[in-house]
Amino acid sequence: MSPNPAPQLDRPARQTAPASAARRAPVDARPRARFDTSRWVVLGVLVIASVYFLAPVWWLLVSATKTSSDLFSGEAFWFGHFAFFANVRTLFTEQGGIYSTWLLNSALYAVGGATVSTLISAMAGYALSKYPFRGRELTFNVVLAAVLVPQPLLAVPLYLMFSQVHLVNTYWAVLLPSMVSPFGVYLARIYAGASVPDELLEAGRIDGAGELRIFFTISMRVMAPALVTIFLFQFVAIWTNYLLPVLMLANDRLQPVTEGIVGWQAQRAIGPSAVPYNIVITAAMVSAIPLVVLFLSLQRYWRSGLTAGSVK
Amino acid sequence: MKVRTASLAAAAMALVATAALTGCSSSGSTASGSPGDGSTGSGPVTLDFWGWAPGYAQSVALWNKSHPDIQVTFDTTAPGSKGGYTKMLTAVKAGNAPCLAQVGYETLPSFAAAGALQDVTSSAASAKSRFAAWTWNQVSIGGATYGIPVDTAPMALMYRKDLFAKYGITTPPATWDAYAADAAKVHAADPSVYLGDFGNDAYNYAGLAWQAGAPWFGTANQQWQVSLNNAGNQKVAAYWQGLLDKKLLKTDPSYDPSLYKDMANGKILSDVNAVWDAPIIASSVASTSGKWAVAPMPVWDAADPVYGNDGGSATAVLKGCAHAAQATAFAVWMSTDADSVSNLIKVTGIYPAATSGLTNPALSAPDSFYGGQKIYDVFNAETPHINTSWQWGPTMTQTSTDLGDGLGQAGTGGATLPSVLGTVQTKTVAEMKQQGLTVSG
Q1: Nearest to B105 by CA among B290, B353, B363
Q2: Structural domain includes residue A312
């Protein structure tokens, strides 16, 4: 809430206010100007929204540091006995250290799937944008329609298809469907249309570059912000995907981390070999770290890509 | 072990359902000797087994060591209610389902309605006498047997011994009348303290109806019957509504941190719950260790005690299994073999369905959380008196969700239990008709 100097200028200082109070302008200004009232309302709404979204994250952070018994006694939203490092140690040794296998699986599915998906989306979107051909709009509309189909709806049909080609219960069963992203194609087309000028391609062609070379050396660089966005969206979608791997895999060493954690959670406290609740929570927290790191490191590109196509 | 119904199964059911009560043809395979030994002499057979419970893999390893002719591969899938059941149903549809699957009793009718189960009546028949009678009813639908019981979940009263004494309750309530009187007594002594909690877990409530012999579902003449709103169920509902009206019960959501906080703080003195809840309470309110005890579930008629059950699961044989007899033999062995049962008790935390399992030494250890009591003695004594007539329906995903919502509303005073039952009855019948099942009542 830094004082905004702008409204201060066109507002005469109140006669009764002492000089020191005048400097705390926004407090005095609040009841007067309509602009400020709406600003406070907006601020209030934003604060409520932030609390709403951040409270579960805070709870996760706090709970991951607790011992099992502290979890149910004491304050839910404040720290108890600090056992975070002990929890992490237990987490990575639980059931023969299978948690790190799950993390690696998730990384493989997410990095592999998102990389290939980004490349395919870029090529398809670019082609749909820059090369006129018969049926172009129809193709694009089909892709657009596919954006509207929720992914979980496709999991069961995909399983039936993969069963016929004997690919269920392999890495490919999760990787292959992850490599396709209709939304990525849509975004790539819109962005290519808006940001890659035809003149640039003409110049490349006059200089004797082939279409592939133009695409990889010129167009893809111009499209970079959109590609980062597609990569991020797809990465998050694969990392948090649940139903597809559940259906496709019947081997806990192939599972991604989401499925593993849900499995632990369902067994909580039942039987001496079950994973304690605080370890499950720590597992959930640790599994979110790669997403946070990815978002923060790619934030710069991501923000400029997010609005791509929004005004088209 | 806590085995719950499929929240995702409904979605799969819509895709997979073949909409017939008896969607299973006879397996055609004949029983091969005693299901106990399982050797058929026809060369090594490989069977797949899907489940999610820890400890199953160890039992499978024990079997494989002693049965070279029938090798079982255990695959850990997602828990049934978290997509595991959907996976099994989809695999049956795709034709690559495993022979064996871990399926909760409450979900078996859904599987049967979807035509996903293999009829193993003939190969399983000789094992019937080795299980508590009511468990056999759980794996049999419309006269056909589809699997072998693994575990059960008799209910009991887990209570704070020290605080019962403090509030002048010398013996834990043996009947529901005594329970109501004690609830009033405790609450009168300290208005912030409650004898028990009325949660929103539909399956816990089902255990109460189960005990009272108030059926929810039945089958007759190839038709499903729904009786959630019958006189017996209204009697149970009226009893609990009476306690709620007088505000004699706390209404924390089931298995919620708020419940365990109240237990730890001595605000809730007891819980009527299944055998698998005993370790959950122990790990959730560890700070009160040694102060708890287990007593039999309060009954309606002290002269003829009948108890309820909340949970339990079977090893089902799935449709399309080419070696149904061998699969059945394995399932019987897993549930009855002493070493396997010991492993399942110790690692999985099951309470065995096999009658021989009840005398397993692993069930006679004193439990320090419950003041050194041998708590399984209570459940063992109850087991012969569990109501045998209970049957689950094919719509438990919808029924349990709707009832859970209703129980929550009843807890906050937004609805009364008798009216909730009427609503759930209507919705359940509608759901069955939507699945294409014939239903009367």
Answers
A1: B353
A2: no
CATH number of the domain bearing residue A183: 1.10.3720.10
Give the residue with greater pLDDT, A21 vs A167: A167
Both A17 and A110 in one domain: the answer is: no
Substitution target in B76, B288, B348, B350 with the highest count of A β-carbons within 10 Å is B76
Same domain, A85 and A98: no
Residue of A nearest to B281 (CA): A269
Nearest chain A CA: its distance from B274 CA (Å): 12
Q: Are residues B295 and B415 in the same domain?
A: yes
Judgement on whether residues A138 and A65 belong to the same structural domain of the protein: no
| Cross-chain residue pair B93–A160, CB shorter than 8 Å | yes
How far A46 CA sits from the closest chain B CA (Å)?
Answer: 29
Give B402→chain A minimum CA distance, Å: 21
CA B199, CA B206: separation in Å to the nearest integer?
12
Please indicate, yes or no, if residue A18 is contained in any of the structural domains.
Answer: yes
* Residue B382: inside a domain: no
Among residues A61, A150, A106, the alpha carbon closest in space to that of A240 is found at: A106
Residue A311 lies in a domain: no
Residue B24 reports pLDDT greater than 80: no
Range of the domain at B259: 154-308+391-440
Residues A247 and A280 occupy one common structural domain: yes
State yes or no: ipTM above 0.90.
no
Closest chain A residue to the Cα of B278, Cα to Cα: A270
- Residue B294 in any domain: the answer is yes
pTM for this predicted structure: 0.79
B71: domain CATH number? 3.40.190.10
Contact B12 A156 (CB under 8 A): yes
Q: Is residue B380 part of a domain?
A: no
Mutate to test the interface with B, among A63, A71, A78, A273 (most CBs of B within 10 A): A273
Helical segments of chain A, H only:
5-9, 19-23, 25-29, 34-63, 68-72, 84-93, 98-107, 113-130, 136-147, 151-164, 171-178, 182-195, 198-206, 211-213, 220-222, 224-239, 243-248, 257-266, 277-306
| Interface contact A271-B55, CB threshold 8 A | yes
* pLDDT score for B143: 86
Write the residue in A263, A266, A272 that is nearest to B347 by C-beta: A272
Q: Do the chains contact at B83 and A160, CB–CB below 8 Å?
A: no
Task: Tell me which chain A residues have a C-beta less than 8 angstroms from the C-beta of B310.
Answer: none
pLDDT by residue (tens digit) across A256-293?
999 999 888 877 545 566 788 889 999 999 999 999 99
Domain extent, residue A53, equals 5-90
A188 and A139 within one domain:
yes
A27 or A114, greater pLDDT: A114
Query: What is the enclosing helix (H) or strand (E) of B49?
Result: strand B45-51
A161 exposure class (CB count in 10 Å sphere: 0-12, 13-18, 19+): middle
Identify all chain B residues contacting A71, using CB atoms and an 8 Å cutoff. Answer: 257
The label of the residue with tokens 């009697």 reads: B235
Domain check: are B273 and B328 in the same one? no
Dig out the tokens for A13 from the structure.
């200082």
Instruction: Please judge whether B78 and A72 are an interchain contact, meaning their C-beta atoms are less than 8 angstroms apart.
Output: no
